[in-house]
Amino acid sequence: MHYVTKFNINGVETMQVACVPLHGKPNAATEGAVGVFGIDLDSPTYDLYWCVDVTGSIYTWKPCSALGLTAKVESLEELIMDTLNEYQDSTARVDELDAEVTEFMRNADERIDKIESETSEFVEESTERMDKMETDVSDFIGESTEKINGLETEVSDYSERIGTLESDVADLLYAQNPLSITSFSVTPLSLEKGITVNSASLTWSLNKTPATLFADGIQLPLEKDGSYALGSETDDDEKLGITADHTWTLAATDERGKSVAKKATLTFYNGVYYGVSEVPATYDSAFIIALGKSGKKTLRSSKLTSFTDNAGEGEYIYYCLPTSMGTCSFKVGGFDGGFELVSTLTYTNEHGHEEEYYIYRSSNAALGKTTVEVK
After folding, report:
1. Could you say which of 60, 205, 299, 368 would form a disulfide bridge with 269 (CB–CB 3.0 to 4.6 Å)?
2. Are 275 and 344 in the same domain?
3. Same domain for 259 and 311?
4. pLDDT tens digits, residue range 172-199?
């Protein structure tokens, strides 16, 4: 159905007509007609018309009764009335929907306004709470920072005091136990002149483990108590070849760099001989060597001041020493004298070393067990 706002019925313009398309012609009398029924909406009886011409927007109508379409129209009238009723129902429903939509929109607007108001209040309250929380947090951080700074200062002070105490305790302990070399020796310690030393061993003892330890430039193991082998008896390249007095210096440093040193000396001595023997045919090196083997021999740098021996029948007591030790005076049985110098000779010992020697002999034979004092 559609509306035509301008139309012409018997030459008279009317305001509006409801038009219903009709497919086909109602009868032969309508040949050439447009094929649209119209209802005069301004007529109380809704008079029916047939559109017979359309020029532009002007529709030309004739009453259906004049065209012999009454029967057809009556069947259509009922359809049209039903359509009009539906239209009116639809219009009423649309009005209801409009009212409902209007009410919904009004309620929605009110709800939106309420939500916006509540949201605004919530945001305002939240902002206030956040501002307060930020202030509280800022105050807390400020107070905590001050406390932490104070604690850090106190900790720093305590750390300094602890460091000072630790340093004082360390100094005290260090002072009570300074590094020292308890002993340092070389083996062999003493030998007869003429012997060649190709190997030796250094032995040491300290009161605590050193930080560095050297002996004549040789780095030794960092041990509190230890030993170190020098040279070789078989490897010519390693042999020490020592034939005269030799001193090693042990040098140690502790954790504070304090150094201590101690010396050990390998010393070569001549022999001092004493014993009993009959008077030989000649006094020579073989006599002194034999006296040492049958009697006594001591390696020393000075006179042997006292000795005891036992001279049997026909035996004399002999005392032999290097001339470098000086001449001797004797006391036997509490009386001065009792010995005489019987020979001065160049003595060659078992190792080929030559030295000037004195040979003294008791004045009497068969003295038995006798103690002799030498000056």
Report:
1. 299
2. yes
3. no
4. 888 889 999 999 999 999 999 999 999 9
